[in-house]
Specification:
There is one protein chain. The mean pLDDT is 95. The protein has 7 helices and no strands. Helix 6 runs antiparallel to helix 7. The protein has one domain: Globin-like, CATH 1.10.490.10. The chain is an all-alpha fold. The structure holds protoporphyrin IX containing FE. Keywords: Heme, Iron, Metal-binding, Transport. This is Hemoglobin-like protein.
Amino acid sequence: MTVPENFYDAVGGEETFSLIVHRFYEQVRTDDILGPMYPPDDWEGAEQRLKMFLAQYWGGPSDYSEQRGHPRLRMRHAHFPIGVTAAQRWLELMDKAMQDVDITPEQHEAIWDHMLRVADMLINSNPDPHEKR
Ligand code: HEM
């Protein structure tokens, strides 16, 4: 899908992505599966990185590339064992984080579709390390 040039502005720019990512990390911190995967002393940095990435992807400022280079998300997630369970949990928390954000259903759908595709692409572990037996 091509991202319309003004999508970032249309959804509310910086404010909207900050809100989504902040609400997301609020939940990640105490999540039994995802929480332990993140750097415990750099929550603000993690929040910032995801926010910059999403802002850039949707047509906002290119701070992510300037600070982090090419996203290479599969490579950057390679040392976190991500099975279906962790990917589903990530999406579940993101779904909650995106509730009540003031965007249209079409905009919501577009952002969500991208999240789904990336989460799926990041699954790198089979057997699933978090599957309950
Ligand atoms: C599938 C489940 C996922 C898990 C378990 C996961 C886990 C993680 C972890 C533990 C980090 C390191 C935190 C940090 O220090 O930045 C990270 C970074 C990151 N994740 Fe994910 N993630 C998932 C899905 C996603 C998705 C769907 C996206 C994009 C839509 C995404 C985008 C990013 C970005 C941009 C970074 C920062 C990369 C960097 O510049 O270092 N992740 N993720």
